Amino acid sequence: MSMNRRSLVKAVAAGGALMGLSVLMPRVAMAAWAKEAFEAKEQGAAIKALYGEDAVAESAEVVLDAPDIAENGAVVPVSISTELTNVESMSLFIENNPAPLAAQFMIPEGTRADVSTRVRMGKTTNVTAVIKADGKLYRATKEVKVTIGGCGG
Amino acid sequence: MSIMRVKAKASGERTDVKMMAKHIMETGQRKDKAGNVIPALFLSEIEVKHSGKVVFTANLGPAVSKNPYFSFSFAGGASGDTLEVNWKENTGKSGSETAEIR
User: Which CATH number is A62's domain given?
Assistant: First the structure.
Protein backbone atom coordinates (compact mmCIF):
# COMPACT_ATOMS: atom_id res chain seq x y z
CA MET A 1 0.00 0.00 0.00
CA SER A 2 2.62 2.62 0.87
CA MET A 3 6.38 2.79 0.86
CA ASN A 4 8.79 4.75 3.01
CA ARG A 5 11.55 6.06 0.79
CA ARG A 6 14.83 7.00 2.26
CA SER A 7 17.03 9.32 0.34
CA LEU A 8 20.59 9.85 1.35
CA VAL A 9 22.06 13.29 1.04
CA LYS A 10 25.74 13.70 1.30
CA ALA A 11 27.15 17.10 2.10
CA VAL A 12 30.80 17.92 2.21
CA ALA A 13 31.57 20.48 4.87
CA ALA A 14 34.36 23.02 4.62
CA GLY A 15 36.60 20.92 6.81
CA GLY A 16 36.32 17.98 4.39
CA ALA A 17 34.15 15.89 6.69
CA LEU A 18 31.37 13.82 5.16
CA MET A 19 27.91 14.33 6.57
CA GLY A 20 25.22 11.78 5.88
CA LEU A 21 21.64 12.83 6.14
CA SER A 22 18.87 10.32 5.94
CA VAL A 23 15.51 11.80 5.12
CA LEU A 24 12.31 9.86 5.43
CA MET A 25 9.86 10.83 2.72
CA PRO A 26 6.36 11.03 4.12
CA ARG A 27 3.92 8.68 2.50
CA VAL A 28 1.77 10.32 -0.06
CA ALA A 29 -1.60 11.22 1.28
CA MET A 30 -3.80 8.26 1.83
CA ALA A 31 -5.92 9.75 4.56
CA ALA A 32 -5.09 7.69 7.61
CA TRP A 33 -7.76 5.98 9.64
CA ALA A 34 -9.02 8.76 11.91
CA LYS A 35 -8.91 6.96 15.24
CA GLU A 36 -10.31 9.77 17.33
CA ALA A 37 -13.25 10.24 14.96
CA PHE A 38 -14.04 6.54 14.68
CA GLU A 39 -13.92 6.09 18.45
CA ALA A 40 -15.92 9.19 19.40
CA LYS A 41 -19.10 8.19 21.20
CA GLU A 42 -21.10 11.24 20.30
CA GLN A 43 -21.89 12.51 16.81
CA GLY A 44 -20.81 16.13 17.27
CA ALA A 45 -17.47 15.01 18.63
CA ALA A 46 -17.04 12.56 15.76
CA ILE A 47 -17.76 15.19 13.11
CA LYS A 48 -15.45 17.63 14.81
CA ALA A 49 -12.67 15.05 15.11
CA LEU A 50 -12.96 14.24 11.42
CA TYR A 51 -13.40 17.71 9.97
CA GLY A 52 -12.23 20.14 12.59
CA GLU A 53 -15.67 21.63 13.13
CA ASP A 54 -19.15 20.36 13.87
CA ALA A 55 -21.36 23.22 12.72
CA VAL A 56 -22.12 21.95 9.23
CA ALA A 57 -24.95 23.49 7.23
CA GLU A 58 -27.71 21.32 5.81
CA SER A 59 -27.62 21.36 2.04
CA ALA A 60 -29.91 20.07 -0.67
CA GLU A 61 -26.74 19.28 -2.63
CA VAL A 62 -26.15 16.26 -0.42
CA VAL A 63 -28.32 13.35 -1.49
CA LEU A 64 -28.66 10.78 1.28
CA ASP A 65 -30.57 7.69 0.34
CA ALA A 66 -31.68 5.47 3.21
CA PRO A 67 -34.90 3.58 3.92
CA ASP A 68 -37.62 5.16 6.04
CA ILE A 69 -37.88 1.88 7.92
CA ALA A 70 -35.07 -0.66 8.26
CA GLU A 71 -36.50 -4.13 8.79
CA ASN A 72 -33.10 -5.46 9.76
CA GLY A 73 -30.85 -3.05 11.60
CA ALA A 74 -27.83 -5.25 10.86
CA VAL A 75 -27.95 -4.50 7.14
CA VAL A 76 -29.29 -1.10 6.15
CA PRO A 77 -28.49 0.05 2.61
CA VAL A 78 -27.38 3.68 2.44
CA SER A 79 -25.99 5.76 -0.35
CA ILE A 80 -24.48 9.22 -0.50
CA SER A 81 -24.21 11.22 -3.69
CA THR A 82 -23.88 14.78 -4.87
CA GLU A 83 -23.54 16.95 -7.96
CA LEU A 84 -21.07 19.19 -6.13
CA THR A 85 -17.69 19.36 -7.81
CA ASN A 86 -14.24 18.80 -6.31
CA VAL A 87 -15.55 16.40 -3.71
CA GLU A 88 -12.76 15.25 -1.41
CA SER A 89 -14.63 12.96 0.95
CA MET A 90 -18.06 11.76 1.98
CA SER A 91 -18.78 10.34 5.41
CA LEU A 92 -21.64 8.67 7.15
CA PHE A 93 -22.72 9.12 10.78
CA ILE A 94 -25.32 7.07 12.63
CA GLU A 95 -26.27 9.25 15.56
CA ASN A 96 -27.54 6.68 18.03
CA ASN A 97 -24.85 4.07 17.40
CA PRO A 98 -22.26 3.48 20.15
CA ALA A 99 -19.71 5.12 17.83
CA PRO A 100 -21.52 7.33 15.30
CA LEU A 101 -18.91 7.51 12.53
CA ALA A 102 -19.58 4.51 10.31
CA ALA A 103 -17.49 5.20 7.21
CA GLN A 104 -15.47 7.81 5.40
CA PHE A 105 -15.03 7.57 1.64
CA MET A 106 -12.24 9.46 -0.07
CA ILE A 107 -13.15 10.50 -3.61
CA PRO A 108 -10.16 11.03 -5.91
CA GLU A 109 -10.53 13.04 -9.08
CA GLY A 110 -12.31 10.96 -11.70
CA THR A 111 -14.30 9.00 -9.17
CA ARG A 112 -17.98 9.76 -9.04
CA ALA A 113 -19.25 11.24 -5.78
CA ASP A 114 -21.77 8.44 -5.44
CA VAL A 115 -21.10 5.59 -3.05
CA SER A 116 -23.41 2.91 -1.68
CA THR A 117 -22.82 0.69 1.29
CA ARG A 118 -24.64 -1.17 4.04
CA VAL A 119 -24.45 -0.31 7.71
CA ARG A 120 -25.60 -1.42 11.14
CA MET A 121 -28.00 0.60 13.24
CA GLY A 122 -28.72 -0.34 16.83
CA LYS A 123 -32.04 1.49 16.96
CA THR A 124 -34.10 4.18 15.30
CA THR A 125 -31.74 7.03 14.60
CA ASN A 126 -30.83 10.01 12.50
CA VAL A 127 -28.36 9.20 9.76
CA THR A 128 -26.17 12.06 8.56
CA ALA A 129 -24.00 12.34 5.48
CA VAL A 130 -21.25 14.96 5.50
CA ILE A 131 -19.53 15.90 2.27
CA LYS A 132 -16.34 17.90 2.00
CA ALA A 133 -16.04 19.63 -1.37
CA ASP A 134 -13.65 22.42 -2.29
CA GLY A 135 -12.73 22.75 1.37
CA LYS A 136 -16.34 23.36 2.44
CA LEU A 137 -18.65 21.08 4.41
CA TYR A 138 -22.23 20.12 3.60
CA ARG A 139 -24.63 17.73 5.25
CA ALA A 140 -27.97 15.98 4.96
CA THR A 141 -29.82 14.11 7.66
CA LYS A 142 -32.59 11.54 7.55
CA GLU A 143 -34.31 9.55 10.25
CA VAL A 144 -34.32 5.79 9.79
CA LYS A 145 -36.71 3.75 11.94
CA VAL A 146 -35.26 0.42 13.00
CA THR A 147 -37.54 -2.46 13.92
CA ILE A 148 -34.82 -4.99 14.83
CA GLY A 149 -31.54 -3.52 16.03
CA GLY A 150 -28.28 -4.47 14.36
CA CYS A 151 -25.49 -4.06 16.87
CA GLY A 152 -25.87 -7.55 18.25
CA GLY A 153 -27.06 -6.57 21.71
CA MET B 1 -6.68 -16.27 1.11
CA SER B 2 -8.79 -13.84 -0.87
CA ILE B 3 -11.59 -11.99 0.82
CA MET B 4 -12.65 -9.58 -1.89
CA ARG B 5 -15.40 -10.34 -4.37
CA VAL B 6 -15.27 -7.65 -7.05
CA LYS B 7 -17.56 -7.06 -10.00
CA ALA B 8 -16.06 -4.34 -12.13
CA LYS B 9 -17.66 -3.50 -15.44
CA ALA B 10 -16.32 -1.09 -18.03
CA SER B 11 -19.19 1.01 -19.26
CA GLY B 12 -18.40 3.72 -21.78
CA GLU B 13 -15.87 6.11 -20.27
CA ARG B 14 -16.31 4.70 -16.78
CA THR B 15 -15.92 1.56 -14.78
CA ASP B 16 -18.67 0.64 -12.33
CA VAL B 17 -17.56 -1.40 -9.35
CA LYS B 18 -19.56 -3.44 -6.88
CA MET B 19 -17.51 -5.20 -4.27
CA MET B 20 -18.06 -7.25 -1.17
CA ALA B 21 -15.47 -8.34 1.34
CA LYS B 22 -15.92 -11.53 3.28
CA HIS B 23 -15.48 -10.29 6.82
CA ILE B 24 -17.37 -10.67 10.08
CA MET B 25 -17.01 -6.96 11.03
CA GLU B 26 -17.31 -7.81 14.73
CA THR B 27 -18.44 -4.64 16.46
CA GLY B 28 -16.97 -5.18 19.89
CA GLN B 29 -20.46 -4.72 21.33
CA ARG B 30 -21.37 -8.38 21.62
CA LYS B 31 -20.70 -10.63 24.58
CA ASP B 32 -20.13 -14.36 24.57
CA LYS B 33 -22.06 -16.81 26.75
CA ALA B 34 -19.66 -16.27 29.65
CA GLY B 35 -20.36 -12.54 29.53
CA ASN B 36 -17.00 -11.56 28.06
CA VAL B 37 -16.93 -8.92 25.36
CA ILE B 38 -16.10 -10.36 21.94
CA PRO B 39 -13.32 -8.06 20.74
CA ALA B 40 -13.88 -5.82 17.73
CA LEU B 41 -12.52 -7.28 14.52
CA PHE B 42 -13.21 -5.26 11.40
CA LEU B 43 -11.80 -4.06 8.12
CA SER B 44 -10.62 -0.52 8.76
CA GLU B 45 -9.30 0.52 5.34
CA ILE B 46 -9.96 -0.54 1.78
CA GLU B 47 -8.17 1.01 -1.17
CA VAL B 48 -8.81 0.30 -4.84
CA LYS B 49 -6.28 1.23 -7.50
CA HIS B 50 -6.33 1.20 -11.28
CA SER B 51 -3.11 1.64 -13.26
CA GLY B 52 -1.34 2.62 -10.05
CA LYS B 53 -3.84 5.39 -9.31
CA VAL B 54 -6.11 5.24 -6.27
CA VAL B 55 -9.73 5.32 -7.43
CA PHE B 56 -11.48 4.67 -4.11
CA THR B 57 -10.62 4.65 -0.43
CA ALA B 58 -12.92 3.63 2.37
CA ASN B 59 -12.04 4.16 6.02
CA LEU B 60 -14.43 2.06 8.05
CA GLY B 61 -15.69 1.50 11.53
CA PRO B 62 -17.39 -1.65 12.82
CA ALA B 63 -20.82 -0.13 12.05
CA VAL B 64 -20.39 -1.24 8.48
CA SER B 65 -22.40 -4.45 8.02
CA LYS B 66 -20.88 -7.91 8.00
CA ASN B 67 -19.47 -8.73 4.56
CA PRO B 68 -19.02 -5.06 3.74
CA TYR B 69 -20.46 -3.99 0.44
CA PHE B 70 -19.55 -0.93 -1.62
CA SER B 71 -20.43 0.35 -5.01
CA PHE B 72 -18.70 3.21 -6.76
CA SER B 73 -17.70 4.34 -10.23
CA PHE B 74 -14.53 5.87 -11.66
CA ALA B 75 -13.51 7.41 -14.96
CA GLY B 76 -11.45 5.20 -17.20
CA GLY B 77 -10.74 1.51 -17.08
CA ALA B 78 -11.25 -0.98 -19.87
CA SER B 79 -12.30 -4.57 -20.09
CA GLY B 80 -9.34 -6.76 -19.21
CA ASP B 81 -7.64 -4.16 -17.00
CA THR B 82 -6.58 -5.10 -13.50
CA LEU B 83 -7.80 -3.50 -10.29
CA GLU B 84 -5.69 -3.73 -7.17
CA VAL B 85 -7.59 -3.98 -3.88
CA ASN B 86 -5.62 -3.38 -0.69
CA TRP B 87 -7.14 -3.77 2.73
CA LYS B 88 -6.25 -3.40 6.34
CA GLU B 89 -7.89 -4.74 9.49
CA ASN B 90 -8.07 -3.06 12.90
CA THR B 91 -5.62 -5.71 14.13
CA GLY B 92 -3.01 -4.43 11.68
CA LYS B 93 -3.39 -7.44 9.41
CA SER B 94 -3.46 -6.45 5.76
CA GLY B 95 -3.87 -7.98 2.34
CA SER B 96 -3.70 -7.18 -1.32
CA GLU B 97 -5.73 -8.74 -4.11
CA THR B 98 -6.45 -8.15 -7.76
CA ALA B 99 -9.60 -8.26 -9.83
CA GLU B 100 -10.27 -7.95 -13.53
CA ILE B 101 -12.52 -5.39 -15.16
CA ARG B 102 -15.04 -7.06 -17.40
Answer: 2.60.40.2470
Mean pLDDT of chain B: 97
Determine, for residues A111 and B59 on separate chains, whether the beta-carbon distance falls below 8 Å: no
Q: Per the CB < 8 Å rule, is B57 touching A30?
A: yes
Q: Compute the distance between CA of residue B12 and CA of residue B79 in angstroms, rounded to an integer.
A: 10
**Does any domain span residue A105?**
yes
The chain A residue lying nearest B54, using CA atoms, is A108
CA-nearest of B74, B73, B68 to B88 is B68
Q: Where in the sequence is the domain holding A97, given as residue range(s)?
A: 35-146
pLDDT in tens, A91-105: 999 999 999 999 999
Chain A residues within 8 A of B60 when measuring between CB atoms: 102-104
Sorted by sequence, the CB contacts under 8 Å of residue B49 that are 6+ apart come out as B55, B83, B84, B85, B86
Q: Is A30 part of any domain?
A: no
In a domain, A3, yes or no: no
Which residues from chain B sit within 8 angstroms of residue A74, using beta carbons? 65-66
The per-residue pLDDT for A32 is: 84
Contacts of B47 in chain A (CB under 8 A): 1, 30
